Amino acid sequence: MAQYFELHPDNPQPRLLKQAVAMLEKGHILAVPTDSSYALVCHVDDKAAADSLRRIRGVDDRHHLTLLCRDLSELANYARVDNAQYRLLKSATPGPYTFILEASKEVPRRLSHPSRKTIGLRLPEHKVLQALLELHGAPLLATTLIPVNETDPLNDPDEIRARYEHSIAAVLDAGACPLQPTTVIDLTDGVPEVLRLGRGDVTRLGL
């Protein structure tokens, strides 16, 4: 049965975050709050955990999973970014945007898109998730928590626990999140292309 951690949205309890990090390091899947809905996350370097993440979410290897990063320097370790792309990323982060970028050699082949060698990356603006990433000390592999055969992400931690209590290790409850997904922007072809309009304001980026 999934554990249930009630976290203060602005000052999350370190003791509970440490327990969550220990679960990640053991290969477990967690439901965590973000600035655009709840998400499922796991350790980046655990293939079995990544496979479980896809299975729970009901997606195959053609679906872009996302790397949640702490800052731009960390993001640059996993993606090839030129000066123009970096300026755009700097103006948009942290925030509810996912950027599709060319994956660097640091990204395991199994995590990048099989035909395009691209990866989705983002720097979330949520204090609980930022604290978790900082304590974990590395990116997390993530996907929006949308149930199989449904279109809307889940926002209620109690519902998440009820529906996934036998398939994930824990729910980090920091209250309700926005019910809009991230805005997805493809930066791989020189000209930014908005693939999905979500919570992130594209006019802020001049798009």
Number of domains: 1
Largest sheet: 11 strands, mixed
Task: Please name the fourth-level CATH homologous superfamily.
Answer: DHBP synthase
Secondary-structure content class: alpha/beta
What is the first-to-last residue Cα distance?
A: 45 Å
Radius of gyration: 16 Å
Tell me, what is the CATH class? Alpha Beta
Mean of all residue-level pLDDT scores = 90
Low-confidence stretches are none
**CATH topology grouping:** DHBP synthase
The total count of strands amounts to 11
- Mass-distribution shape: globular
How would you spell out the order of helices and strands? EHEEHEHEHEEHEHEEE
Strand portion: 15-25%
Tally of alpha and pi helices: 6
Description:
- The chain has a single domain, classed as DHBP synthase, CATH 3.90.870.
- 27% of the residues lie in helices and 24% in strands.
- The protein has helices spanning 14-25, 47-57, 72-75, 83-92, 127-136, 157-164, and strands at residues 3-6, 30-34, 37-43, 66-68, 79-80, 97-103, 118-122, 140-144, 170-173, 183-186, 193-196.
- The longest helix has 12 residues, at 14-25.
